[in-house]
Amino acid sequence: MESLRHFSLPMLIFHNPEHSLHAGRHEMFRGRLVPCHETPARLDHVLSELQRRPLGELRTPGAPDRALLERIHTPRYLDFLARAWQDWVALDPAHAELDILPSVWPNPALRHDVAPLNFSAQVGLFTFDAGSPITAGTWSAAQAGAACAIDAARAVAAGSGSPRAAMALTRPPGHHAGADFYGGYCFLNNSALAAQALRDAGAARVAVVDVDYHHGNGTQNIFYERADVFTTSIHGDPRTEYPFYLGYADERGHGAGEGGNLNLPLPAGTGFDTWSAALQQALAAVQRHGAQALVVALGVDTFEGDPISRFTLGSPDYLRIGAALAALRLPTVFVMEGGYAVAEVGVNVANVLQGFLEAA
Ligand code: SP5
Ligand code: ZN
Predict the structure, then answer these.
(1) For residues 210 and 192, is the Cβ–Cβ distance under 8 A?
(2) What lines the ligand 1 site, CB under 6 Å?
């Protein structure tokens, strides 16, 4: 780490001390409940890699800012998340040993404007898949994670003397969560919260670059009609890859947000050369947008060994991704998203941060 010594302002890394309170048991897959891919061990591997290779100063977050949460998510959705577990256990004390998973959804031919009293019907109203269990500690973990994202954003926006980069090292992830729905292992959209916090701290234009394997449908949806936050995502082609129903190249924003979204879907099997050409396209678009601050939705499920994804990036490639992001020379907030090759998640995340610092 000789090369990092000359950085007087270290990266600040806000880690979620409550992340392990969210530990789902099962996700639905092809007619079976299979063990969750999104596990507490993922983050433990990043923390232990950062102990071996200190790239920043570890901090814990303050209290979550409810007013900021309500700028991204609806009060009705936040209230549902806050009371879901107690309502579930009130139905039957035996539920305390079971995760909440949906079994019924309102498709477009059914009504979304009514909130049925039935608990399962409410669950279905607020999610879009059966892979994202709510557990006893989900709301606590998600709130502390949101606080990490907000505090990381405020740290880089604090003006002269603030570090160029900060990270929200948290789980559950966030980029699939929309204004009033959860899914894809995500409950609160940490990357969107970071972007909003940067806006509120004075950055007139902010960009979110989503490098997770999966399209950032929640983030796209939240900012789709806004001109002030540009969103771009590089991801597996949704014709074959989750989340399937969004993430196509013709989605370019709407109304005031027209032109404010860029999707770069790539076929399963894509390697680093093609992937990094797409990253250059995304970064050029960020520059054209005139962003004054950057949020990186940092999933490392683009890794060749990822069990649920199909790109073939290798661990050294993540150093080059960090360097490419640093070349924008913007205040930057990294927000942890996916990555399920559990043992390698730590090395791959730390490589992005190291590549960024060495190039900064
Ligand atoms: C944040 C993030 O990366 N979310 C990804 C959500 C993907 N959910 C669907 C995954 C389906 C894969 N199931 C494979 C299980 C068999 N081993
Ligand atoms: Zn992902």
Answers:
(1) no
(2) 29, 34, 131, 173, 176, 184-186, 212, 214, 242, 299, 301, 308, 337-338
- CA distances (Å), origin 292, targets 89, 118, 174, 265, 281: 46, 46, 22, 25, 18
Residue 176 falls in the annotated catalytic set? yes
Do 235 and 215 meet the contact criterion of CB atoms below 8 Å apart? yes
The pLDDT value recorded for residue 7 is: 47
Type and span of the H or E element at 89: helix 75-91
Cβ atoms of residues 209 and 282 within 8 Å: yes
CA distance readout (Å), 30 to 27, 34, 131, 242, 332: 10, 9, 11, 14, 39
What does DSSP say about strands 11-15 and 56-59: parallel, antiparallel, or unpaired? Answer: parallel
Q: Which tokens sit at 322?
A: 């960090």
User: pTM here?
Assistant: 0.97
133-182: per-residue pLDDT in tens? 999 999 999 999 999 999 999 999 987 788 899 999 999 999 999 999 99
DSSP three-state, residue 183: strand
